[in-house]
Amino acid sequence: MSGRQIVIAGGGAAGLAAAVTAARLGAQVTLLERADRVGKKILQTGNGRCNLSNTAVAPRAYNAPDFVRPALSRMGCEALRNFFASLGLLTYADAEGRIYPVSDAASSVLDVLRLSCEEYGVRILCGFEAARLLPNGTVCAADGRTVHGDAVIVTTGGGTALLQSVGHRLTPFSPILCPLATDTTPIRGLSGLRAKCAVTLRRGGQALVTQRGELLFRDYGVSGIVIFDLSRHAQPGDLLSLDFLPDIPLGKLEELLAERTAAHPARLGEALLTGMFHSRVNAALCRAAGGRVERLARTLKGLCLEVKGCGDRKQAQVTRGGAVLSEFDSATLRSVRIPTLYAAGETLDIDGACGGYNLHWAFASGILAAHSASGGRI
Length: 378
Fold this sequence. Notes:
Blueprint lengths: L4 E5 L3 H12 L3 E6 L19 E2 L10 H10 L2 H11 L3 E3 L4 E4 L4 H14 L3 E4 L3 E5 L3 E4 L4 E3 L2 E4 L15 E7 L3 E3 L11 E10 L2 E13 L2 E3 L1 H6 L8 E5 L6 H14 L15 H10 L4 H9 L1 E8 L7 E6 L17 E3 L13 H18 L4
Parallel strand pairs: 1-2, 1-10, 2-6, 10-19
Antiparallel strand pairs: 3-5, 4-5, 7-8, 8-9, 11-18, 12-15, 12-17, 13-14, 13-16, 14-15, 16-17
Helix pairs in contact: 1-4, 1-9, 2-9, 6-8
């Protein structure tokens, strides 16, 4: 039992996990939240179902594998599920390894966290906009109020400059895990349609990464989980190469189209693709091929779209950027500048793939920071 006074700035996933953990260890915890209630963002995750982890959670799924390794080694998928089970939450893994509450309701995750805060005596101050930190463990609000602790854990997420007030450097924030704005000429008229394909991100003629999944065409470009994952790597000027038939080699596809042409000589242009894709997709592919059958196979295997940037910032699941990692100890998440200061969640420059990885980091890092600040170990 630590008996320490711990202040947590930020009442999201990382902050709530940290608050429950520290209070369980005997700390007197004050949780500060800018909004009128804690955990609002949790309710929006996983399309309202809260994909809180993944059975494949591993360091390689994040932008800084070495930094996240200590937290993940202590709090892997099963350990996190056990943590939530101890709060009363039942979870299950779907066919793709994504972890959800049995209720399929994000509110269940928030409810057990809030109820546990009440049970362990966490003091929650909503409407407290943390604006500045002092090296002595004081958090100052924008309206002049102050709260002091023996240790402070910052979990205020993307967009905060709170750590800068004590000299920490921040990598600028930008939205990722988001739709991508692209050249829309090749996909004109396809908005709202979906297609299963392999998408390769190319830069300077080199293939950087390939993902397979369902793509959603939008007025401004493309969306879908496959695009969200690729958005972690994409830059303006990159090319997205769409392979609509990834399991059929180019040579075999050329033979297939030749056979279809011979079997159905009356089917010209997009009619040649009837039965393969949606009619509007057929039209777009034939248009991109310039109406030439000999170019159609290569178009189906590599329709290219130039990336312009984030397509819709409001849909971004996380933000890239945050506190520079070299200024925090990965084993404890303690600041190397101020011994009483810790950070967790999106406040740190960490981001992971779609599928529960980012929420897992938020919860796991919050738990690790709380143990460190309370003088314990997971």
